């Protein structure tokens, strides 16, 4: 009896092990196997095209296996393996979305069973984004002028007066002002009866109109002009730095550029002179440095003590943006890092600052974009190009303007008489003589 009992236990254990094994079999998972198109054997890149793929080693792929081709993360075609040879395969394009042509260098992917115990499933079809899209109006054209959204509100003009709207197009501050600026740090400067003051987002005056000019608040202070001199106030309207400068700029990184007797220097928020007025031409601090030019000589950079950190050696420079600055030497543009080292060679006919990881550059009369290694990521093909904002940039081809993404793909064709950059998900556009707002299709 004892032997039978042990046999029963042994059988039970074997059955249990079999069930565990079966469970593992039933829960077999898939993985994605990827490769690259190395040649187009025949066809124009659309349906019916035959391609050759380098897959690396894999014993899981089979003839008639289905897969897909991607470009910039989007599926543009679906394929079927015709034959396998070592780590290479010949495949046929079975379905094409007519968005992009299948070419060499594109990524291909297949779903394969990790355990090879189940039939190969059909690959999941990824949604294909079709661009360019028609612009989606969030606020219909109805204003005589319009600005970008900032802190949830945008300035608009109706007749000869300015007010503010929210993102639904609702007027939240009635048009009543002769001039306005965007909201910044909760307040906006407005002009009425020839004088400037400040309102909050309800339209209530926080600082009554009294200045000849009033700029936006920056770092807690606002630049104002009265009696021909410039000074700074706080958000109660109290002078923190009395009007005394011939010219001045808003605060940036704790310092403000001011002019005294035809020379520029910098003050702190108490009005104390940090860098004596000595420069003929200098700009605000960006990323800890200010670009300057000695009249008739060269351009370089100083730090916040006024010390030269990159000696004047360039014909011209732009401010640092995302760690790099554009410089000009003998008509050619390149980029330097904060040590002054040229990290992208002087090779461009024109160039602009980096924005969202890319900089627009001009080569041979056309504009394109480079990344921070200097690699061309969007081939020069435009008659003019602008900076990226919220993933989109405005470029011009002849008289036509379009919004492109960071791959150079056309996202929205501009059919408008006026246009602006995207800000807080919306961009102002003009049809006829009226302005409205469209939605960023990438958001």
Automatic annotation (TrEMBL):
<dbReference type="InterPro" id="IPR032774">
    <property type="entry name" value="WG_beta_rep"/>
</dbReference>
<dbReference type="Pfam" id="PF14903">
    <property type="entry name" value="WG_beta_rep"/>
</dbReference>
<protein>
    <submittedName>
        <fullName>WG repeat-containing protein</fullName>
    </submittedName>
</protein>
């Amino acid at each position: 009896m004892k032997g039978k009992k042990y046999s029963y236990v042994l059988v039970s254990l074997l059955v249990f092990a079999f069930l565990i094994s079966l469970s593992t079999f039933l829960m077999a998972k898939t993985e994605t196997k990827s490769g690259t198109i190395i040649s187009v054997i025949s066809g124009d890149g659309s349906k019916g095209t035959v391609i050759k793929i380098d897959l690396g080693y894999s014993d899981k792929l089979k003839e008639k296996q289905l897969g897909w081709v991607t470009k910039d993360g989007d599926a543009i075609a679906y394929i079927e393996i015709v034959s396998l040879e070592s780590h290479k395969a010949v495949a046929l394009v079975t379905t094409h979305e007519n968005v992009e042509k299948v070419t060499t260098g594109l990524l291909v992917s297949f779903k394969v069973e990790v355990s090879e115990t189940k039939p190969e499933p059909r690959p999941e079809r990824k949604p294909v984004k079709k661009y360019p899209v028609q612009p989606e109006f969030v606020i219909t054209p109805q204003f005589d002028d319009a600005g970008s959204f900032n802190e949830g509100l945008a300035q608009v003009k109706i007749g000869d007066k300015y007010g503010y709207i929210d993102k639904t197009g609702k007027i939240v501050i009635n048009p009543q002002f002769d001039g306005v600026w965007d909201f910044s740090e909760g307040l906006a400067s407005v002009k009425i009866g020839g004088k400037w003051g400040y309102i909050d987002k309800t339209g209530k005056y926080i600082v009554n109109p009294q200045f000849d000019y009033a700029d936006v608040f920056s770092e807690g202070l606002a630049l104002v002009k009265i009696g021909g001199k410039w000074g700074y106030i706080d958000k109660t309207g109290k002078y923190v730095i009395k009007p005394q400068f011939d010219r001045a700029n808003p605060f940036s990184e704790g310092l403000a550029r001011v002019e005294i007797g035809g020379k520029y220097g910098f003050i702190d928020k108490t009005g104390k002179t940090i860098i004596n007025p000595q420069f003929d031409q200098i700009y605000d601090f960006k990323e800890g440095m200010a670009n300057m030019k000695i009249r008739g000589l060269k351009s370089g950079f100083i730090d916040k003590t006024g010390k030269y950190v990159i000696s004047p050696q360039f014909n011209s420079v732009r401010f640092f943006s995302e760690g790099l600055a554009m410089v000009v030497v003998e008509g050619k543009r390149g980029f330097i890092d904060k040590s002054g080292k040229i990290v992208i060679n002087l090779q461009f006919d024109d160039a602009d600052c980096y924005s969202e990881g890319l900089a627009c550059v001009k080569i041979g009369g056309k504009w394109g974009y480079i990344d921070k290694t200097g690699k061309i990521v969007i081939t020069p093909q435009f008659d003019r190009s602008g900076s990226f904002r919220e993933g989109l940039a405005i470029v011009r081809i002849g008289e036509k303007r379009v919004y492109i993404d960071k791959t150079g793909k056309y996202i929205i064709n501009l059919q408008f008489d006026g246009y602006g950059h995207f800000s807080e998900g919306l961009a102002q556009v003009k049809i006829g003589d009226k302005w409205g707002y469209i939605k960023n299709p990438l958001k």
